Amino acid sequence: MIELGANRYGKGGIHIVRVDRTADPHIVRDVYVSVQLEGDFAAAHVAGDNALVVPTDTMKNTTFALAHDHLDGAIESYALALSGHFLQFPQVARATATVREVAWRPLQTSAGRSDHGMLRDTSMTRTTVVRSDRDGASVRSGIEDVALMKTTKSGFSGFPRDRFTTLPEVDDRMMVSSVSASWAYGTSSGDWDALHGRVWGTLVDVFHDHFSPSLQSSIWLMGKAILERVADVDEVTMAWPNLHHWIVDLSPFGMDNDRTIYHATSEPYGMIEATVRRSDVVG
Amino acid sequence: MIELGANRYGKGGIHIVRVDRTADPHIVRDVYVSVQLEGDFAAAHVAGDNALVVPTDTMKNTTFALAHDHLDGAIESYALALSGHFLQFPQVARATATVREVAWRPLQTSAGRSDHGMLRDTSMTRTTVVRSDRDGASVRSGIEDVALMKTTKSGFSGFPRDRFTTLPEVDDRMMVSSVSASWAYGTSSGDWDALHGRVWGTLVDVFHDHFSPSLQSSIWLMGKAILERVADVDEVTMAWPNLHHWIVDLSPFGMDNDRTIYHATSEPYGMIEATVRRSDVVG
Amino acid sequence: MIELGANRYGKGGIHIVRVDRTADPHIVRDVYVSVQLEGDFAAAHVAGDNALVVPTDTMKNTTFALAHDHLDGAIESYALALSGHFLQFPQVARATATVREVAWRPLQTSAGRSDHGMLRDTSMTRTTVVRSDRDGASVRSGIEDVALMKTTKSGFSGFPRDRFTTLPEVDDRMMVSSVSASWAYGTSSGDWDALHGRVWGTLVDVFHDHFSPSLQSSIWLMGKAILERVADVDEVTMAWPNLHHWIVDLSPFGMDNDRTIYHATSEPYGMIEATVRRSDVVG
Amino acid sequence: MIELGANRYGKGGIHIVRVDRTADPHIVRDVYVSVQLEGDFAAAHVAGDNALVVPTDTMKNTTFALAHDHLDGAIESYALALSGHFLQFPQVARATATVREVAWRPLQTSAGRSDHGMLRDTSMTRTTVVRSDRDGASVRSGIEDVALMKTTKSGFSGFPRDRFTTLPEVDDRMMVSSVSASWAYGTSSGDWDALHGRVWGTLVDVFHDHFSPSLQSSIWLMGKAILERVADVDEVTMAWPNLHHWIVDLSPFGMDNDRTIYHATSEPYGMIEATVRRSDVVG
């Protein structure tokens, strides 16, 4: 017997910019939105019956309309309103809203801060994924596209060696990553911007303030500190690619390279992923 | 209490090309490989102890070495050898090898097929993910980066309308997608190339030979046919973005556009995902 | 004194798909179009006067409208019509239409060739740039995104060595490139598809049929042959990145690697560019 | 007769990171470098003779070696040293060094600025192209990947209308661009960082402080001001894509959208390019 398994559908890549010109400086919100629905959609698959299929075009229209009223605050608030909206359809069991935000900063001119001229800051993408069902909503927020580097206080040694091992041990290496992190909030309301700031601030503090024997250790230390300092966070998951920076051997040219010149590479890369969680929480 | 949850690590982005010059034409295999390990790595995280941490650099060396002996056949065979290799480390509970392959075809010259000149065919990426643990290995293969189009025999109507619905019903639209599909084999040995060919052939046959009332329906029909025709496949999962092609309104210019000229867009896009499986199999 | 120098403006990224359902199989044309205008636009710059500025939105509408009537043939014909159209504006001195085309091929099903199901073939992008001014039109066509490989019959030796040279000489290496080539036609009418086919066929023939001592030499040989065999071509310009494939040293693992396993890299890359032309033509 | 025309070759995609750990905070320089040579290379093309071909691998080694000694200052200084180096080869008539730099900023921790923890700021790429020949060197610097927005003080009206024009006139629109600009310095020595800062500061000041009737006008005003305020700049060339932000019509949903919600698009896009120069300079 053949049957339909897990299925979902929705709209992605909706790029919305919301402008509030009543503030000084103007407030610009720049978000990419996607919506996914799960529920009673088997008939669409097995019988070609669209009677319950809310069109993805309708989802797109809805993201624009709700952005008007709900994107004046944090993306978490908007995503809560958006995912909650789709529960008005009885056939929808779960609605997921994913929002990625990039920041625009007022330009600094020689006459002061501009009220309407903006520079996009792509140093970090802020994310949230909100899932709403009949039992409530869960909020998972995070960061993407954040490149971090430790120029010292990082090494890698004490590892096992086998036939295929050629890596030397090092006690002072470059540690460079393009970080993705997300964390589950234990609440569906709160001062989202403040919470986000405390998580990021903790991550930065710990990233700076330790000797890293491995990315594994650093991820654990950062995740643990986030849970210790931000009570509303139940669980943190991080993916840290190890973007290798190799010391260039300049000795064939009669030059000494005392950890000054590195060849930065993007491939191959290491990838270290881990979750840190409260033990009384189902992660 | 704070604890370590799920964790894994490995190497990605390893680009290997293997050449067999004894064949005519030469055989070129072009693969991107990644390896991920799960197991007893808590000490690395919580104690900064690397004694059990097989370096990702060693993983990279291993992928090259094993490609020499095992990439003469299908990527599934190579991935089986590669993931199985890492179980020799007692601390490894599960090793996952992911291989993506692009094809090189001998050039057609005016004097016939070249023996050593090749053209890369990027119309499809073939993938496999093999997971090996102490109980055996599972093989999941698939395709990516395949753009398919139905110029007719596709529509979308009969859907519900609400306050935010503006989409008209259509009985003849363009259906364009960039398909990702993967399927679980019920076996860990077999003629992988032949199996892959039968799955792809079935997908193509059904894609062509039906009127599509929705992507949901098409995915079901293709998945069902694959399971019916390929006994070694237990489950198929597909993700079909709906890459909208909108009819351009040429009437303001005094022209009629009878479904000839479309504005192709990449964002926003619909996204339809579903699994089709045998009901006696845990998917 | 400060003055306005060279300037132009236009619209880019216009993605048009044209479908002819009267043919069997259906004919799908998938093009990215841009248009650039040069002429009497100084007032827009220095006086903020838009009276002569044909809006780029109008250009976009025009590309759609003219695709209806002119994209039934080769992209060169369409680009000629499109760039010529804008000369109706007296302020336009030169109009440039750039068209990039990717191919869709009918699917092969078990019951034969599909009439309406298509697979996108991204192995090559075909391009044309047509410039029209009051003296006529020039047509420059080409190819992009074509990856070619010679698994043998390629080396690099006899080069000078200085303090910074570490590269060994090799008499049998992998030669891999992602080719961009364009050529100027000496005519503004012709059987564009046939001409394009003859240029590509010549390139392939020569690419296959020579030992390459360097990319420089190969480019010259291919360019020269194209000019010899296709009388309507006056000049060929090619850019061949050298995508290095390095032999992996497997000897630390007790293995011999007789030019079988290569580490393929995308950065850094060599880049060889040259023009080959008829000496009686101003290139 | 067939002959070799313009030709050049070199190495691209060399990613170098230089670290100075003697400063507090550490100084990180992150650059992508390419080198191109022109000169007496015809024999390599037409005779397959590599006797004068400095290998691109040697160029790569040279970029690393010279970065050790010359990348402690501005990228212009490094590019001058690098391109000048290759003139030691008699066969080299002109050497071009292109450097693109992204910035790393010290992390702000709760205990103050980190000395060794860095965040990559991708809001702007700084570029330079230095060409050295037997007559001296020319320096052209610039910026890339800078997204700027004016939320108001921008419109577009007074343009001509034809059969294909549907665009309405607007007196208050969003103006959003991802800017590329480069400028020619009239000197081959100077305080490059200060000069760069003055150009960017002028661009920002003018971008903020005017009503823009068109991108054409804005480019002129910014370019003119740069030449007026920075005597060492002879010419400025800018390319400003117009990244359209369309007001979403919410009226079908019974909502008013008073320039609050925009649909941001990346394709199609306008593209406005112009050079502003001193009239006594050959641009």
- Gyration radius of chain A (Cα, Å) is 23 Å
Distance between the termini of chain A: 34 Å
Q: How much of the residues of chain A is beta strand, in percent?
A: 35-45%
Shape of chain A: globular
Oligomer: homotetramer
E-strand count of chain A: 10
- The tally of helices of chain A reads 5
Helix content of chain A: 10-25%
Largest sheet of chain A: 8 strands, antiparallel
Report the average pLDDT across residues of chain A.
97
H/E topology pattern of chain A: EEHHHEEEEHHEEEE
Question: Which strands sit side by side, in order, in the main sheet of chain A?
Answer: 1-2-3-4-5-6-7-10
* Unreliable stretches of chain A: none
Structural class by sheet pairing and helices of chain A: alpha+beta
Largest interface chains and counts: C-D, 79 and 79 residues
Describe this structure in words.
The structure is a homotetramer of 283-residue chains. The longest helix of chain A has 17 residues, at 192-208. The first copy, chain A, has helices at 42-46, 56-70, 75-85, 192-208, 215-229, and strands spanning 2-20, 27-39, 92-109, 112-133, 136-150, 175-185, 233-242, 245-247, 261-264, 269-278. Chain A starts with a strand and ends in a 5-residue tail after the last strand. Helix content of chain A is 22%, strand content 44%. Chain A has an 8-stranded antiparallel sheet. In chain A, strands 8-9 form a two-stranded antiparallel ribbon. In chain A, helix 2 (56-70) packs across helix 3 and helix 4 (192-208) crosses helix 5. The first copy, chain A, is an alpha+beta fold and 283 residues long. In chain A, a hairpin with a 2-residue loop joins strand 4 (112-133) and strand 5 (136-150). Chain A has 5 helices and 10 strands; from the N terminus they run E-E-H-H-H-E-E-E-E-H-H-E-E-E-E. Chains in contact: A-B, A-C, A-D, B-C, B-D, C-D. The interface between C and D is large, with 79 and 79 residues. Strand 5 (136-150) of chain A pairs antiparallel with strand 4 of chain D, so a sheet runs across the interface.
